[in-house]
Amino acid sequence: MSGPWYGTAQPDGSLPIDWLVIDESGEKQTRFKAAPKGISGVNIINFGAPNQVVAFLSSTLGSGPADFWSRVVREGTTELPDFTTLLKLSAFSQRFGFVGAAPALDGQRALFVAGSDSELTLVLVAADGSAVGSTHALTTAATYSVCQSIQPTENAAALAVLEPASVDFDVFHRLELSATGEVAWEVTLPLHRARPPGWNSSALPCPMLALTPTGFALVAFETAADHDAWHLHRIDRDGTTSDELWEALFDFPLGFAIRGSIAFAVTTRSDAPLTIVKRSNGQDQTFAVDAHTTVAGTDGPFPSEAGSLFLDVRPSGEAGQIVELSCP
């Protein structure tokens, strides 16, 4: 699926929306269009069926109480679709809050998140725009959170944040819902984040996440006993965790994937070509990619299953290509 794309509202109040559905072979592409009235915002995603998108909207004065709802927009729609209320928050700051949505990997449900300060509220959403199960809150010990991201899973998704806990470390906090909309897994992990050489001075890099067959993994730049370096953390559902120094990642990771003892990352730096770093049983190999090839986008790779990484690759002078890299 590619898109949806939407521009500015028309004089009659309609919003043109286009999206493209691509089959697994990549050969068949079907374009869909709609122009519903009364739709705005940026959280419009495709899930549930190829011929529909779901818009997530809110009613708020900027601070104070806020209502959030969904509207299902089907191909050819020109009128205002019916709405379904998902959340009612008694306190929400539009300026400092977080609102996001992402579909599950199976494309049948989506996770919607809204909140501010120390509490973010999650709800799983069905293909008809209704809530699945209960609403749940990810509450932080700190008065705010950073690095909010939604990680799609096979049948649902997880919300991950960082809690600024002290001057020495942050707390990584991840809450995952199941396909029934209930809490499936919640985990916290201390991270001693640091600033990589050449990174901008306004913020520290956020952890990068990837699914594994037994849980998930994250890559973060951290302070170690003798020097700062990238670290690979594995977190399994049975409670097993590991922390590996990944010194071969001397550039900035754009994405990574992991399966069993094998992991790889695609890295870049402004003055260097793309590089693939492969780790197998603790040993690293580095492969340089064509110096004129870039990866589009700033939000990381496309969500994918464990062991795979999808990137929007742009060879110099050529059209963009969606490339899949997989662990053997």
The outline comes out as globular
Report the radius of gyration as a whole number of Å.
20 Å
Structural class, by secondary structure, is: mainly beta
Q: Name the assembly state.
A: single chain
N-to-C series of helices and strands: EEEEEEEEEEEEEEEEEEEEEEEEEE
Distance between the ends = 25 Å
Number of helices: 0
Strand content: over 45%
Average of the residue pLDDT scores: 89
Uncertain regions spanning at least 5 consecutive residues: none
Reported for the largest beta sheet, the result is:
4 strands, antiparallel
Question: Order of strands across the biggest sheet?
Answer: 4-5-6-7
Share in helix: under 10%
Keywords:
single chain; 4-stranded antiparallel beta sheet; globular
What can you tell me about this protein's structure?
The protein has 328 residues and is mostly beta strands. The chain is 0% helix and 57% strand. It is built from no helices and 26 strands. A four-stranded antiparallel β-sheet has the order 4-5-6-7, with no helix packed on it. It has a four-stranded antiparallel β-sheet with strand order 8-9-10-11, with no helix packed on it. It starts with a strand and ends with a strand. The mean pLDDT is 89.
Structure summarized in a few sentences:
The chain has strands at 2-6, 17-22, 29-34, 44-45, 52-60, 63-74, 83-93, 98-103, 110-116, 119-125, 131-139, 146-152, 157-164, 170-177, 183-191, 208-212, 215-223, 228-236, 241-245, 252-259, 262-269, 272-280, 283-288, 294-295, 308-314, 321-326.
Q: What are the SSEs and their pairings?
A:
Layout: E1 2-6, E2 17-22, E3 29-34, E4 44-45, E5 52-60, E6 63-74, E7 83-93, E8 98-103, E9 110-116, E10 119-125, E11 131-139, E12 146-152, E13 157-164, E14 170-177, E15 183-191, E16 208-212, E17 215-223, E18 228-236, E19 241-245, E20 252-259, E21 262-269, E22 272-280, E23 283-288, E24 294-295, E25 308-314, E26 321-326
Antiparallel strand pairs: 1-2, 2-3, 4-5, 5-6, 6-7, 8-9, 9-10, 10-11, 12-13, 13-14, 14-15, 16-17, 17-18, 18-19, 20-21, 21-22, 22-23, 24-25, 25-26
